[in-house]
Amino acid sequence: MKNTSLDLVNFFSDALFATLVVNKETNKIESVNDIACEYYGYIKEDLLHVKLESIFVSKITEEEVYPNFIHQRKDRKRFRAQMMKMSLEDNWVLYLVKNDDEKILKTEIYEKEIDLFFNSNRKNIFNYDIVRSIFSLMPNILYLKDSNLRYIFFNSNFYKYFGFGQIEIIGKTTEEIFPEDFARQVETSDKEAILEKKTIESEQLLNINGVEVWLNAFKTPILDNEGNFIGLLGGAVDITKDKEHEKELSSINQMLNEKLAEREELLMKSLDMLSFALECRDPYTSGHQKRVAELSVAIAKKMEFSEEECFGLKLASLIHDIGKIGIPAELLSKPTKLSAVEFELIKNHSTLGAEIVSKLPNPWNLSLIVEQHHERYDGTGYPKKLIGEEINIFARILAVADSFEAIVSHRPYRPGRVKDFAIKEIANGRNTLYDPKVVDIFMELILKDNFEFEQE
């Protein structure tokens, strides 16, 4: 095999697909890369002695591209993969195999290979016919510029998008061909790629014959053996459909967000109505639920729950006592201690509240939080005597906020307690009545962050 073909094999050794070089006369595999060994299940030394028909199940024809070719591994398992065949000089054939859902001819797969191809230190590696074949087969815009940034080569897609023929473009610079504004953009990115000596990518919006076209463009400087700039490889992928899809998705998302906002507003109004109905029956709870919501959300935010989760907790807190609407009003405002029977009736409010809230469609499981807000960490709560993490985390947060607010607030049977007393009560309930992690965050919020209720 002559140097040019050897250089091409070395160039493809790090490719993103399997490569095999085959002698056209003997049909013998002469060179492979590591990915080919991986695909076919051989070590390199063994694969070089395998007959081509042992790994190629489908029939090789005169076609250059095989989109659904059947291959066979050493263990005789078969797989379908895309394959491209390229005839080289001196009776050699190069096979490129890509075993995934991406087409092997897509620009993003070739960018690295072309970049390496033209930046190689081997002066004789450039073969016009090979480059022309690659360019012509690729579905995207490609072009070459010389060291003076004059166009010296482009593929058919360049003509398709820009409408220039070879006579109009070969030997000319961008500013001689394109409108001033666009030419200035191109020249700026050209200079950036040359200066940085690396591939530059950018999105460009063009107006072609009155039609807006979005392109994802790239430019790669070509260097000689000494690292001097000798040319520029450029290309672009049409991403107009992607942009249109993004625009459609953005429009849909905006519409959905508006609908969600309307739904949330309606839900909030429904909850406010329920809360107001409860406060009309039990004036001592007026403002209680709002203050509990305020403290619950502050704790949840400090525990780094998301905005969406905090919003759900806020809603649950605003109606956590809604079940009391089904409790006799005289019990809710009784100025003396409740009897055991009366307290059992009061305890039903969490279950009744969950039943009421379950009628409101929502994604936050509000009914569960409402039902469990009187459960206690050690299993002494109600209605189901759940223990520890059996209790919903937001119900555990609500339990601490609810208890603290209840202690400092006035009740029919006692006056409100001072803040320090309430803090001590919560601290004493750590790891028994309340989740220790929630209590720790609560203490930090109250003592270090100096939390104060805004709702009076």
What does this 3D model show about the protein?
The chain has 456 residues and is an alpha+beta fold. It has 20 helices and ten strands. It has helices spanning 3-11, 34-40, 44-47, 52-55, 107-119, 128-137, 156-162, 166-169, 174-177, 180-196, 240-281, 288-302, 307-318, 329-332, 340-347, 349-357, 366-372, 393-408, 419-428, 436-448; strands at 18-23, 29-32, 65-72, 78-87, 92-98, 141-146, 151-154, 200-208, 211-223, 229-238. The strands form two sheets. The protein has a five-stranded antiparallel beta sheet with strand order 2-1-5-4-3. It has a five-stranded antiparallel beta sheet with strand order 7-6-10-9-8, sandwiched between helices. The N and C termini lie far apart (89 Å).
Short descriptors:
20 helices; single chain; five-stranded antiparallel beta sheet; 17% strand; 456 residues; disordered N terminus; alpha+beta
Offer a quick outline of the entry:
With 456 residues, this protein is α+β, with helices and mostly antiparallel strands.
